[in-house]
Design brief:
It contains 3 helices and 8 strands; from the N terminus they run E-H-E-E-H-E-H-E-E-E-E. It is α/β, with parallel strands linked by helices. The longest helix has 14 residues. The protein starts with a strand and ends with a strand.
Protein backbone atom coordinates (compact mmCIF):
# COMPACT_ATOMS: atom_id res chain seq x y z
CA UNK A 1 0.00 0.00 0.00
CA UNK A 2 1.03 3.59 -0.64
CA UNK A 3 -0.34 6.55 1.32
CA UNK A 4 -0.76 9.83 -0.57
CA UNK A 5 -2.17 13.14 0.66
CA UNK A 6 -5.27 14.31 -1.23
CA UNK A 7 -3.40 17.54 -2.04
CA UNK A 8 -0.59 15.63 -3.79
CA UNK A 9 -3.09 13.55 -5.78
CA UNK A 10 -4.70 16.81 -6.90
CA UNK A 11 -1.28 18.25 -7.82
CA UNK A 12 -0.43 15.18 -9.94
CA UNK A 13 -3.77 15.39 -11.78
CA UNK A 14 -3.28 19.13 -12.34
CA UNK A 15 0.23 18.47 -13.70
CA UNK A 16 -1.18 15.80 -16.05
CA UNK A 17 -3.91 18.14 -17.29
CA UNK A 18 -1.49 21.02 -17.81
CA UNK A 19 0.85 18.77 -19.82
CA UNK A 20 -1.89 17.27 -21.98
CA UNK A 21 -1.63 16.00 -24.71
CA UNK A 22 1.91 14.98 -23.72
CA UNK A 23 2.88 12.65 -20.90
CA UNK A 24 4.10 14.31 -17.71
CA UNK A 25 6.28 12.73 -15.04
CA UNK A 26 7.55 13.32 -11.56
CA UNK A 27 8.86 12.00 -8.28
CA UNK A 28 7.08 11.57 -4.96
CA UNK A 29 9.20 11.58 -1.83
CA UNK A 30 8.54 10.63 1.77
CA UNK A 31 9.20 7.82 4.21
CA UNK A 32 8.49 4.12 3.70
CA UNK A 33 4.97 3.98 2.20
CA UNK A 34 3.87 7.57 2.94
CA UNK A 35 4.27 10.38 0.42
CA UNK A 36 4.99 13.88 1.75
CA UNK A 37 6.78 15.56 -1.17
CA UNK A 38 5.75 16.29 -4.78
CA UNK A 39 8.27 17.05 -7.53
CA UNK A 40 6.98 17.56 -11.08
CA UNK A 41 9.74 16.87 -13.58
CA UNK A 42 10.43 17.80 -17.19
CA UNK A 43 9.62 15.08 -19.73
CA UNK A 44 12.60 15.50 -22.04
CA UNK A 45 10.98 13.16 -24.59
CA UNK A 46 8.04 15.60 -25.01
CA UNK A 47 5.90 12.67 -26.18
CA UNK A 48 2.34 11.49 -25.65
CA UNK A 49 3.54 7.86 -25.53
CA UNK A 50 6.58 7.84 -23.24
CA UNK A 51 8.63 9.90 -20.84
CA UNK A 52 12.19 10.48 -19.73
CA UNK A 53 12.97 12.61 -16.68
CA UNK A 54 15.51 15.40 -17.09
CA UNK A 55 18.63 13.92 -15.43
CA UNK A 56 19.85 17.09 -13.68
CA UNK A 57 16.38 17.69 -12.20
CA UNK A 58 16.22 14.07 -11.08
CA UNK A 59 19.63 14.30 -9.38
CA UNK A 60 18.66 17.58 -7.65
CA UNK A 61 15.45 16.03 -6.30
CA UNK A 62 17.25 12.97 -4.93
CA UNK A 63 19.86 15.25 -3.30
CA UNK A 64 17.09 17.40 -1.75
CA UNK A 65 15.23 14.32 -0.44
CA UNK A 66 18.39 12.90 1.12
CA UNK A 67 19.17 16.23 2.80
CA UNK A 68 15.75 16.02 4.49
CA UNK A 69 16.21 12.39 5.51
CA UNK A 70 13.58 11.30 3.00
CA UNK A 71 13.55 8.83 0.11
CA UNK A 72 11.99 8.47 -3.31
CA UNK A 73 8.72 6.64 -2.64
CA UNK A 74 7.20 6.73 -6.13
CA UNK A 75 7.62 7.74 -9.74
CA UNK A 76 4.51 9.01 -11.49
CA UNK A 77 3.57 9.70 -15.08
CA UNK A 78 0.45 10.30 -17.09
CA UNK A 79 -1.25 8.42 -19.88
CA UNK A 80 -3.05 11.15 -21.83
CA UNK A 81 -5.25 8.79 -23.86
CA UNK A 82 -4.88 5.29 -22.42
CA UNK A 83 -5.88 3.49 -19.20
CA UNK A 84 -3.94 3.72 -15.94
CA UNK A 85 -1.96 0.52 -16.41
CA UNK A 86 1.71 0.03 -17.25
CA UNK A 87 2.55 -0.25 -20.94
CA UNK A 88 5.17 -2.73 -22.12
CA UNK A 89 7.64 0.17 -22.25
CA UNK A 90 6.70 1.26 -18.70
CA UNK A 91 7.42 -2.27 -17.47
CA UNK A 92 10.71 -2.52 -19.38
CA UNK A 93 11.92 0.85 -18.06
CA UNK A 94 10.85 0.31 -14.43
CA UNK A 95 14.42 0.01 -13.21
CA UNK A 96 14.22 1.75 -9.84
CA UNK A 97 13.80 -0.93 -7.16
CA UNK A 98 11.46 -0.60 -4.20
CA UNK A 99 9.41 2.34 -5.47
CA UNK A 100 5.78 2.56 -6.51
CA UNK A 101 4.88 3.47 -10.07
CA UNK A 102 1.80 5.66 -10.33
CA UNK A 103 -0.07 6.26 -13.56
CA UNK A 104 -2.62 9.04 -14.07
CA UNK A 105 -5.01 8.27 -16.92
CA UNK A 106 -6.76 11.13 -18.70
CA UNK A 107 -8.60 8.78 -21.10
CA UNK A 108 -11.79 10.26 -19.60
CA UNK A 109 -10.73 13.88 -18.91
CA UNK A 110 -13.75 14.47 -16.66
CA UNK A 111 -12.72 11.57 -14.38
CA UNK A 112 -8.94 11.13 -14.13
CA UNK A 113 -7.88 7.74 -12.76
CA UNK A 114 -4.78 7.25 -10.59
CA UNK A 115 -3.44 3.75 -10.01
CA UNK A 116 -0.28 2.45 -8.36
CA UNK A 117 1.86 -0.56 -9.17
CA UNK A 118 4.95 -2.32 -7.90
CA UNK A 119 7.07 -3.39 -10.87
CA UNK A 120 10.08 -5.65 -10.47
CA UNK A 121 11.88 -7.79 -13.08
CA UNK A 122 8.93 -7.52 -15.47
CA UNK A 123 6.34 -8.51 -12.86
CA UNK A 124 3.54 -6.01 -12.24
CA UNK A 125 1.54 -6.03 -9.00
CA UNK A 126 -1.35 -3.57 -8.45
CA UNK A 127 -0.98 -1.58 -5.24
CA UNK A 128 -3.67 -0.07 -3.03
CA UNK A 129 -3.62 3.71 -2.64
CA UNK A 130 -4.82 5.21 0.63
CA UNK A 131 -5.57 8.91 0.38
CA UNK A 132 -4.76 10.82 3.55
CA UNK A 133 -5.02 14.39 4.80
Amino acid sequence: MIRIPHSIRAAMVTHANEGFPLEVCGILGGTEDTVTEFFPMTNTDASNEHFMMEPREQFAVIKQLRSKGLAMVAIYHSHPETPARPSEEDIKLALTPDVSYLIISLADPASPVVKSFKISSGTVEPETIEYIL
